[in-house]
Amino acid sequence: MDFLKSAIQEEISKKRKVLESIEKKGEGENKKQKYKKARLEAEEAKRKDLERQQAKANEKENQEKSEEETETFNIPMEECIRRLRAMGQPIRLFAETDKQCKLRLRALELMDEQQSEEAHMRLDDLKQKRGVTIEDKKKTKKQGPAVVPIQIELISSDIDRLYSQIYAYFAYTLEEWEEYMAARPEEEKRSVPGKRAAVLQKQAAEYIKPLMRQLKKGTLEPDVLARVAEIAQRMQKRLYRDAQDSYLQLSIGNAPWPIGVTMVGIHERSAREKISSSQVAHVLNDETSRKWIQSVKRLMTFAQTKYPPYTLSQIS
């Protein structure tokens, strides 16, 4: 019986020791957790304190900058009124002080500057898109018909080939003219002569379309084809004076009275008979022909500007 009691007491003491050791271990872990928590709280408080100090410093700096800007913008009231009138704004709002009026002017000017920057950005985007369009046109031009020296003698042997040579040359010159106009400085484009030159270029490109269609289809009259071939060939060789002679033959011909002089005594009947003949200018036959002949002359002028003649005697 005593042996059983002693065994029970021994077992109880062992369990008590185990429990005490567990409690001591738990207390140690609790102390560690409390220490870690306290350290984290201290770091968080330190961080918040630094943020508050930084915010105060930034606020003070912004306030100083605002005061400096206010002092810098301390313009006379007469100047403030002048600027507000120039911007189309009221010079004084109800119960507005001089300082408030100046601050309102400053805010309006800042808004205007921001809008100007946005407008410049949009303009740059448009220029970039325009540049991409020009590059695409250049690629298209390279893929188009090749420009070769025009051979007038083909009019009797291979007229279709002559048609294609003239068409390729005029199409190439029109594209060069368009690129030349697009590459001009903005100041030149906005000037009155620059705007007029752009209108003439677009008008010439539109008016010459009937000629381009006839060249593509091969339906020009033989005498007209001969003159147009001479003009294109001499433009290629930079013989602009000779090209102008061919242009005059094409436009007014060799008739003694090319423009409506039909009631001059003994010449009355002869002049009337020649109105529809080949000696009279094709420009007099219809308005469409007159327009594309005029466009050919403008092409000659552009070609002479971009590719000057080799000798002064060939300046038209």
UniProtKB/TrEMBL annotation:
Principal location class: nucleus
Keywords: mRNA processing, mRNA splicing, Nucleus, Spliceosome
UniProt feature, compositional bias: Basic and acidic residues: 21-65
One cellular component (GO) term of this entry: U4/U6 x U5 tri-snRNP complex
GO biological process: generation of catalytic spliceosome for second transesterification step
The keyword Transport is assigned to this record: no
Domain of life from the UniProt record: Eukaryota
Domain Pre-mRNA processing factor 4 (PRP4)-like: start-end pairs: 75-129
Protein's recorded name: Pre-mRNA-splicing factor 18
Disordered: region residues: 21-72
Compartments it resides in: Nucleus
Organism: Rhizopus oryzae
Protein family: Belongs to the PRP18 family.
InterPro entries documented for this protein: Prp18, PRP4-like, PRP4-like_sf, PRPF18
